[in-house]
Amino acid sequence: MAASASHWHSYLRVIVSRERQRLEHFQQAEDILLTLLEDVHAREPRFLVDYARNLEAFEFALCTSEDIVTLEVPLRIDGDALRVLACWPGDTPAGHCLGLGTCHLEVPSSGTDLEDWTSTVGVMERGGGAGCLVPGKVLQHLKELLVSAIVHCQRCFMLQPGDLSAENLREDAMELSLLIRGGWKTIRFDIIPVVRRQQDPLQLKGRQSDRGFPEGSLWKATEEAHFVPASPHCWRSSTHLPILKLLQAVDTLNGTRLDSLRLLNQIRSQDWGEEGGKGGLTFNHLKMVLLWSTELFPSPEDWQDLEDSVYRLLVILLRCLATRHLPHFLHPEENLFQGEPSDLTSLYHKVERFAWDPRRFLRFHFGLPARTDSWQADPGTRALLQLPTEDRSYWDTAYFDILLSQFQVYRIQDGARHSAVSQLLSKIRQEIPQQS
């Protein structure tokens, strides 16, 4: 059953109405955290206090379904002087899986005031220099300083009872978690040390740079590399802040792109979760879908109407769920669904059900999610969605325009796009005879 424009906008208004209060809660909790970090910096100047937290505040207000903030603490290190060395499989103990982009950060010479954070284990065999920066040592030092800062602030009555809990600090975690009260809400801050260094602008192989984005936004988002702990011995390249910078750039465009993200994230948390509330689709997954949809639908005509905008994200999400493959926007070789423990088939059915009958889901409820047990997937749509991922023509605007037509939300007047759709349909009919 189709939903009227009023249904879409009424649902969105409730979501947006929460953002101002969430931002106030974030700022109150941030004040407490900055007090702690200032104390840490006073004890150890190598841990810097970054007061520019507009990106974290932006994400926290945007994602009304979660109360977790990833907060990077920059190190006072000349990142450009470090040498990046690829990690070997034997470089990390059992239980810590090496992912894409894991590396060592080699300190070029002694006398850099980093001796207590470095180790020469495995470096000399590779012809290395003074040693490598060890994330486990940095994390342990930061943890000890945070505990000291908490005790000091409590003794000086700078913290009120109930303002903060450090119970989540764990020896083996790659982030240091603090629960901090902001107003009546408790926010979890995952604190992560970060090494920053300049890098060449990211080249998107076979893709048009800045397509759909404000000019220069990709360069600005990726001009700096961020390295965070991947294991006690290895670092990894983090795209957390670059992705947020791209989202913020999208927010400067006219249209309803971020409104689509807000709406689908609320549906995700309300109706697409797994039993127990764990696993399944995440806000990070949806952020990646929005960035892909911005690139694949660069025309402002695609983003004038809220319903049409939501479906731009939905067709890409359905394609990724059907093929179990969600490429990272900045590193497409990385599949964000790889090793995903959740039931993607069940999730696919929930998302497709929403696509065919959104009105049933555009309501707020505090009980069980909307039931989709009896839903039978549309075989024609499923066949289109399962076309081979190796063929790049099935990850292009024309292909997703065909999917939009399938859901009867394709109202584009561009003749060139209509022509591209016709050509691709001829090819698809040869691969799926029943579609003709």
Write the layout of secondary structure elements.
Blueprint: H1 5-17, H2 19-43, H3 54-62, E1 68-74, E2 83-86, E3 102-107, E4 118-119, E5 131-133, H4 135-155, E6 164-165, E7 176-182, E8 185-198, H5 217-222, E9 224-229, E10 235-238, H6 240-251, H7 257-271, H8 283-296, H9 306-323, H10 344-356, H11 379-385, H12 397-406, H13 415-431
Helix pairs in contact: 1-7, 2-3, 2-4, 3-6, 6-8, 7-8, 7-9, 8-9, 9-10, 12-13
In total, how many beta strands?
10
Distance between the termini: 25 Å
State the major sheet: 10 strands, mixed
Fraction of residues in H or I helices: 40-55%
Structural class of the secondary structure composition? alpha+beta
H/E element string?
HHHEEEEEHEEEHEEHHHHHHHH
Proportion of residues in extended strands:
5-15%
Q: Summarize model confidence as the mean pLDDT.
A: 87
Radius of gyration: 24 Å
| Tally of alpha and pi helices | 13
Low-confidence stretches: none
Shape: globular
What does it look like?
By secondary structure, the protein is α+β, with helices and mostly antiparallel strands. It contains 13 helices and ten strands. The two termini are 25 Å apart. Strands 1, 2, 3, 4, 5, 6, 7, 8, 9 and 10 form a ten-stranded mixed beta sheet that branches. The model has no long low-confidence stretch (mean pLDDT 87).
